UniProtKB/TrEMBL annotation:
Compositionally biased residues, Basic and acidic residues: 125-144, 374-383, 398-423
Organism: Mycena maculata
Domain of life: Eukaryota
Start and end residues of each stretch annotated as Disordered: 125-145, 359-423
Name under which the protein is recorded: Uncharacterized protein
């Protein structure tokens, strides 16, 4: 008796309205059992694919006859069998079969679809390898063209002093004006250049209290201190950095300061310049940097925060007292610590001469000799510090003998008249 039901579950004969494409669709791959090896999987998938090919051919023939005549011949009773799902392959299994044809043969038979994939993958990889070899060959052939091709046609001498100009960023000027106390050591040339060239890296904060109804971005000194440090102590800094930063800081204050006028002879810039020259002229300026620096910081802030004007007597008492206390605490000799301590010779020339004599005795080095450049009040042979470093930063009256003794002011601060350098 002929069957009345199709393998798809519907009554025979199937009409041309049946969805044959859905019946021929390949099912989703299934996960393999834990104990199934690659060879067993290949065997199963091979048999499943062969069966699916037969099913597809049978279904296609049945569909063609039904749609062309309405009734299939007696030899074609039904559509093909239900499509079989394949077992999944892992990436490692596929890579092993692609890499080694011998391995592929051992775990065969390989299903036709998988075999086509393996062959195409090998062809693709072989093509890439060939392109790579060709590129390497071309590179070797072009190498002789590069050899000897670089010619220095315009030899130039590098000037170690030629660098991009230093400018004071607006954020740093505002930090001084609004008394945010930016660290003095943020004003070295390198850090000013970095801040100028990388403004986006400078931390800022909003402040709406500067002017009614306005908002302004200010330098966030608290955050910047985490990266660049503060100037509370001189630890980690050198006298050369103090000298450089002080010059730049003074320039910033000069930009901000109002010019003195007949009604007000004082300005922040003028007072700060006197302040800096005072500390630069201290005996033992270099070696006692960390001793006198806290006093310099304190007096600098008094000028900027409380509008204190420079008074040489007050500054002298603060500095000499601190240095003298340090010497006593450290068991050192009572070396003069201010011009007032230099003895009975009260003349300015006698004081300066005595000061230099004492310092050279401390250093066990003879006073420098050689021609002097009296036009700009500097010694020609005193422009270089220790290790040959040029520490002349353009401050008038700087006597940096062997990079140790710091500044000298060759103008009488009371009369403004020029005084000649003395030894």
């Amino acid at each position: 008796m002929a069957p009345t039901k199709s393998v798809c579950g519907e009554d025979l004969l199937l009409t041309d309205q049946y969805n044959y494409d859905t019946w021929r669709k390949q099912p989703e791959d299934i996960n393999i059992p834990a104990d199934m090896g690659l060879q067993e999987k290949n065997q199963y998938n091979y048999n499943a694919e062969m069966a699916n090919h037969i099913s597809i051919s049978t279904t296609r023939a049945y569909e063609t006859l039904v749609k062309s005549s309405g009734t299939p011949p007696a030899v074609t009773k039904d559509i093909g069998a239900k499509m079989k799902a394949y077992y999944k392959y892992t990436k490692e299994e596929v890579e092993d079969m692609v890499t080694s044809e011998r391995f592929e043969q051992v775990v065969g038979p390989i299903p036709p679809t998988m075999l086509q994939f393996l062959i195409k993958e090998r062809m693709t990889r072989a093509k890439k390898d060939e392109e790579k070899r060709k590129q390497e060959k071309d590179a070797k052939e072009k190498a002789p063209e590069l050899a000897g091709s670089m010619v220095m046609s315009k030899a130039a001498l590098i000037d170690p002093l030629t660098r991009s100009p230093v400018s004071i960023p607006v954020l740093f000027l505002a930090a001084i004006k609004y008394r945010q106390h930016p660290s003095l050591f943020w004003f070295t040339n390198d850090r000013l250049r970095y801040a100028t060239e990388n403004p986006g890296n400078m931390p800022t904060k909003k402040n709406i209290a500067l002017a009614a109804g306005t908002e302004k971005s200010l330098l966030d000194c608290t955050k910047l201190e985490v990266v660049w440090g503060s100037d509370v102590t001189a630890e980690g800094f050198t006298i050369f950095e103090w000298t450089e930063a002080s010059a730049n800081f003074l320039e910033a204050v000069q930009i901000l300061s109002a010019k003195p006028d007949p009604t007000n002879q004082y300005s922040y810039a003028v007072e700060l310049e006197k302040h800096q020259k005072f500390f630069a002229a201290l005996p033992d300026f270099n070696r006692l940097f960390e001793v006198w620096y806290p006093v310099e910081l304190q007096m600098r802030n008094k000028i900027l925060d409380t509008d204190a004007r420079f008074e040489v007597g007050i500054w002298k008492d603060e500095a000499s007292g601190t240095i003298r206390a340090w010497r006593i605490a450290n068991g050192g000799p009572q070396i003069p610590t201010s011009l007032a301590d230099l003895g009975p010779n009260t003349s300015r020339q006698g004081q300066a001469s005595a000061r230099h004599t004492i310092l050279h005795e401390i250093d066990n080095r003879p006073p420098p000799t050689g021609p002097r450049n009296t036009d700009n009040h500097r010694y020609d042979n005193n422009r270089y510090g220790d290790n040959g470093r040029n520490v002349d930063n353009g401050w008038q009256g700087r006597d940096n003998r062997q990079g140790r003794e710091g500044f000298r002011d060759f103008r009488d601060q009371d009369t403004g008249r020029e005084r000649h350098p003395v030894t």
